């Protein structure tokens, strides 16, 4: 049986075969191209399939999307912004395969539930901090998908005290503060000389004053968002991944302080935020889960 996982991420296209003996070194990935995105996706999938008949494909895609229609419209792929029939296109490529699509945050939440830091809890929030803020919610042991498949967009929770413009057209969204581009831009306006989220994280770890201030600002915003979502959904575990959220990051202290300040309801004393252990494999692992689930239905 050949099962593939595909990731349409904020910065990369990636694919891997789902099998017991397959490791992270076998992920095929490329940066999101400026044009010809489907051709690149097709090449990745055919490369992984290696001429074999494919039984199932699971897709984790950045949103927005229409899960029922199998259409995706991620903003980072301009030629798909009006809607691209991704599920239909993959089915045409592998006619014998079942094809399952879910939002990247849904897949992230499933990956943490099956393989990561939320295996022992029923109610949780999984977040990946990158160019966009990927989020997924688990309630009662079931992932929250939503009416159109777009549930879990924690990046667009409004943060008190912030009014930064967001790519969605609003202001004060979590993503407008903590997303890689706005976060590095804020640091640059304060005099930081770097140009990537990875270098910002490294400089903060080394004690650079502006880099530390940027991650402290991000941590405070994240803590406020987490407290709001936890109160709404009665969750007790939040797992964070991404280059600025590793163990020991200066992000954690202001985040925990903000959670302690705002998560005051009597049912929230056990709320914990912890770093993810899935590294860059979360979305592909979650895509693998939905592919395997599609085979059993």
Detailed description of the structure:
The chain is α/β, with parallel strands linked by helices and 297 residues long. It contains 9 helices and 12 strands. It has helices spanning 37-49, 86-93, 104-115, 174-178, 180-189, 197-205, 209-233, 252-262, 282-296; strands spanning 3-8, 12-17, 28-31, 56-61, 65-66, 71-72, 98-103, 124-129, 133-139, 142-143, 237-241, 272-275. It has a 5-stranded mixed sheet with strand order 3-2-1-4-7. Strands 10-9-8-11-12 form a 5-stranded mixed sheet, with helices on both faces. The chain has a two-stranded antiparallel ribbon with strand order 5-6. A hairpin with a 3-residue loop joins strand 8 and strand 9. Helix 6 packs across helix 7. The radius of gyration is 19 Å and the shape is globular. The two termini are 16 Å apart. The model has no long low-confidence stretch (mean pLDDT 93).
């Amino acid at each position: 049986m050949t099962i593939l996982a595909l990731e349409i991420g904020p910065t990369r296209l990636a694919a891997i075969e789902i099998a017991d003996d397959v490791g992270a070194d076998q992920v095929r990935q490329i940066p999101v191209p400026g044009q010809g995105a489907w051709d690149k996706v097709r090449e990745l999938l055919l490369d992984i399939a290696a001429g074999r008949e494919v039984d199932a494909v699971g897709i984790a895609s950045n949103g927005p999307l229409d899960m029922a229609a199998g259409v995706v419209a991620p903003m980072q792929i301009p030629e798909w912004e009006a809607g691209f029939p991704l599920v239909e296109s993959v089915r045409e490529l592998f006619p014998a395969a079942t094809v399952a699509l879910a939002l990247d945050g849904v897949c992230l939440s499933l990956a943490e539930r099956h393989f990561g830091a939320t295996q022992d809890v029923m109610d949780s929030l999984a977040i990946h901090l990158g160019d966009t803020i990927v989020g997924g919610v688990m309630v009662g042991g079931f992932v929250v998908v939503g009416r159109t498949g777009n549930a879990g967009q924690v990046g667009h929770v409004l943060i008190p005290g912030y009014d930064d413009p967001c790519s969605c057209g609003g202001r004060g969204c979590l993503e407008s503060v903590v997303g890689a581009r706005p976060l590095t831009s804020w640091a640059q306006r304060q005099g930081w000389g770097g140009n990537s989220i990875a270098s910002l994280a490294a400089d903060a770890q080394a004690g650079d004053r502006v880099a530390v201030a940027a991650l402290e600002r991000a941590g405070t915003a994240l803590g406020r968002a987490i407290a709001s979502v936890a109160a709404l959904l009665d969750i007790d575990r939040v797992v964070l991944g991404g280059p600025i959220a590793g163990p020991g990051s200066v992000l954690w202290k202001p985040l925990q302080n903000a959670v302690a300040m705002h998560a005051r309801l009597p049912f929230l004393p056990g709320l914990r935020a912890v770093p993810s252990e899935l590294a860059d494999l979360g979305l592909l692992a979650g895509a693998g889960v939905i592919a395997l689930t599609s085979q059993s239905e």
